[in-house]
Amino acid sequence: MEIPLRNIEDFLKIDAPCIDVRSPSEYAQGHIPEAINIPLLDDEVREQVGIDYAQQGRVAALKTGLSLTSSWVGTMIDKMIRISSDGQLKIYCWRGGMRSEAAALLARFAGLNPVLLSGGYKSFRNYVHQSFMFPWKFIVIGGMTGSGKTELLSRLAEMHHQVLDLEGLAHHKGSVFGGLLQPPQPTTEQFENLIWQQLASFNIQFPVWVEDESINIGRCFVPKPIFERMQASPLILLNIPSEQRAERLALEYGQADTEELVATVCKIRKRLGFQQTDIITQLIRQNRFKEACLMLLQFYDKAYSISLSRRDPHTIIHLPVSNNPDVEQVLNTAEINLFEIP
Description:
Blueprint: E1 5-6, H1 8-13, E2 18-20, H2 24-29, E3 36-37, H3 43-56, H4 58-69, H5 73-83, E4 88-92, H6 98-109, E5 113-117, H7 120-131, E6 138-142, H8 149-158, E7 163-164, H9 166-170, H10 188-200, E8 208-211, E9 216-217, E10 220-221, H11 224-232, E11 235-239, H12 242-253, H13 258-266, H14 269-272, H15 274-285, H16 289-309, E12 316-321, H17 327-337
Parallel strand pairs: 1-5, 2-3, 2-4, 4-5, 6-8, 6-11, 7-8, 11-12
Antiparallel strand pairs: 9-10
């Protein structure tokens, strides 16, 4: 019986566990979100099979693969059985070729009902890039560092508005301090996959709230079509006094290791100036975090003002000065100035 082959749209709609049979390094670089890695070939074996394929052809590569993987075929079958849901399983490799076909045959011999992805992970990546070209209706939340933009987005999400949390997906808060107290960042490729996953859950007819970001968030880069649409979208600018912003930052980053904070400040020594850097690091070591944050804000506020100046001023909606961002005020402003908010 022939193993079913599905295009990317139909493959994603199937409600069954998804298995990525590529090597661990390929999976780490990027994979379909929620897919589980059960490699048919590990990195070393994959390299050897690739060499044999290039030098001797498909049959030689197949023989090499079989001889080097026979010891863990049983383990792979056991894993697929445990992971499958009522015998259903989705399987993909890079191009939808030998590896996924071989894994599907093993699954079929074990009594499972596998489905293959036509074109493999490569077709998924094309699908992801196409989704970034859709006419998403972004509403951008802007404001100087420490304005509470992330907290505001969290409250909007709790109210069931569509929120694309780029910093949350990137595991980074944007500034040089953004990686502190965060888990390791994904690759840019996987970051894109996670953005797709979030956008795929949204209704394109309704607005998507997103924080104003640079094109890079730590080592992750925002997809160019998304970034360009964000830049052209309306921006609601929070106006929070520096005292309140410094308090928020001191509370958040005061939990980090002191010497790690000092080392992070020293990364921007040339831009801060050597004297300013020395004063700020002394304040941090004295646990005078708010004073240190007030000094750092002078640097970050200037940088953000320059970034803001590159925008079309007609896209910027200024909110009145407030000690804390008011979600209702933001919603009312968007509804009055932009379009209906669901």
